[in-house]
Amino acid sequence: MSIDEKQIRSLFRIEGEEIEKLATSIDTEPVQRLIDLMANCKGNIFLTGCGTSAMAAKKAVHTLRVVDIPAFFLNPSDAVHGALGAVNVGDVVIFISKGGNTKELTSFLPNLKENMCRL
């Protein structure tokens, strides 16, 4: 399979149009809150998710580490079996979930709230 210059330019044009749509339609307030939370974090940043969301969380962890931000993936199944001991006051825990009600993730929310983490 070969792709020609015209197809490549078309792809970039389509991607640019979609980014423009996102830029004009996204609610920036939650994004700003997340940026502020991460920028003011005095501890570590943990990301967690299940399935495809876990892969996105792991990629985000890698990206943060590349720019020297202390970030770690928190495996949801390990979290309910003792891994929450790594999360301390002042840390930020970011949940990535398509639906927002994944049982594996919601099961350890109360423990994190008790630890006074920022969610």
List keywords for this structure.
119 residues; mainly alpha; Rossmann fold; three-stranded parallel beta sheet; 6 helices; 9% strand; elongated; isomerase; SIS_dom_sf; carbohydrate derivative binding; isomerase activity; Phosphosugar isomerase/binding protein
Tell me about the biggest sheet?
A: 3 strands, parallel
The CATH architecture can be named as 3-Layer(aba) Sandwich
Tell me, what's the shape?
elongated
- Strand tally is 3
Distance between the termini: 46 Å
> What do we call the CATH topology?
Rossmann fold
How are helices and strands ordered from N to C? HHEHEHEHH
Beta-strand percent range = 5-15%
CATH class: Alpha Beta
CATH superfamily: Glucose-6-phosphate isomerase like protein, domain 1
Any low-confidence stretches, pLDDT <50, length ≥5?
A: none
Structural class: mainly alpha
Number of domains: 1
The total count of helices amounts to 6
Arithmetic mean pLDDT? 90
Q: Helicity, in percent?
A: 40-55%
Domain SIS: 34-119
GO molecular function: carbohydrate derivative binding; isomerase activity
Protein name: Phosphosugar isomerase/binding protein
Keywords: Isomerase
